[in-house]
Amino acid sequence: MSVVTLSGEGAERLIAGGARVLDVRSPEEHEDLGHIPGAWLLPVDLIPAAPGLLRNRAAPVLVYCEHGVRSRMAAEFLIRAGFSAVHDLAGGMSAWRGAREFGPGVLRGPCSWLLETADLLPHRGPVLDVACGYGRHALLLGGAGYPVEAVDRDPEALAFTAETARALGLPVATRALDLEAGQPDLGKDAFDVVLVVHFLHRPLFPALRRALAPGGLLIYETFTREQAKLSKPTNPAFLLDPGELPRLCEGLEIVRQREGQFEGRHVAAIAARRPQ
Questions:
Q1: Which helix (H) or strand (E) holds 19?
Q2: Strands 20-23, 40-41: parallel, antiparallel or unpaired by DSSP?
Q3: Pick from 82, 72, 67, 74: nearest CA to 45
Q4: pTM, whole model, 2 decimals?
Q5: SS3 (DSSP) at 96
Q6: pLDDT at residue 118 tops 90
Q7: pLDDT of the residue at 1
Q8: What average pLDDT score do residues 2-23 get?
Q9: What's the CATH number for 4-95?
Q10: How does residue 119 score in pLDDT terms, banded at 50, 70 and 90?
Q11: Which residue of 2, 125, 132, 207 shows the fewest CB atoms closer than 10 Å?
Q12: How far apart are CA 128 and CA 217, in angstroms?
């Protein structure tokens, strides 16, 4: 498999056929220089999250940047990850003559809260990705050199994550675990970072605290009750009450937090550290 380079006309035909389009430029370029309508914004330095975002390795993908250098790197990464229909826009947006939109885009791939708390991460150290799904965060952190254990109860998602990590040579291990059954064992004093995104099972919080090493950091974000007014989830069991997340993290030192509407979703998020 190799990257297919397309002219603007070829790219337009591919898009008309339903291809997913990735803009791997910066958010500023995406907004100010214009972007292909419907393109997903995923800057090239976050491209390890792309497999877990795209999932279907056989579906056509078009990658572009401003001049074609960053997009080539991103497209070759996707080929190594096992994607078989990856296309690169020749000359990038500087040569594009098709439809163009202006304005901000929503960052795809990793949770923005993880990016906003990245400065709090240790330089190295084991990470536990809880309810990892298809591995967008596990692969991103593995790509940054962190050894990651990714747990989930979905065997298909775990198999995808494990296969992608092997193909890319990333230090990501997967483990099948039903996080809502009994008292799941997440380890004790084992992880410098525990990450939970868009998953809520309140009885799990003691296990999350135990899994943290002294000085370890819990990074957590999930939906609040206000989200039910917009879209799923709507089950109160999966939605936080106002101000509830800090209470669930009792015993940890809150370093940073937010609650409200972000990227069109109502969420609460916290970064909290276990005392030394």
A1: none
A2: parallel
A3: 74
A4: 0.94
A5: coil
A6: yes
A7: 81
A8: 98
A9: 3.40.250.10
A10: very high
A11: 2
A12: 10
Q: Which residues contact 271 (CB under 8 A, 6 or more apart)?
A: 117, 120, 217, 218, 219, 220, 254, 255, 256, 257
Nearest to 23 by CA among 57, 59, 56, 71: 71
Alpha helices in the chain (DSSP H): 8-16, 27-32, 50-54, 69-80, 112-116, 136-143, 155-168, 205-211, 244-248
The fold adopted by the segment(s) 112-273 is: Rossmann fold (3.40.50)
Beta bridge partners of 269: 221, 258
* More confidently predicted of 124 and 101: 101
Residues that are catalytic: 65
3-state SS, residue 226: helix
Tokens representing 203 are 């009885």
DSSP class of 38 = T
18-74 pLDDT, tens digit each: 999 999 999 999 999 999 999 999 999 999 999 999 999 999 999 999 999 999 999
Query: What does the alpha-carbon distance between residue 47 and residue 130 come to, in Å, rounded to a whole number?
Result: 21
**Start-end ranges of CATH 3.40.250.10 in the chain?**
4-95
Q: What angle do CA 122, 125, 128 make, to 5 degrees?
A: 105
249/240 Cα distance (integer angstroms): 13
Token duo for residue 30: 């995406």
Please count the residues of the chain: 276
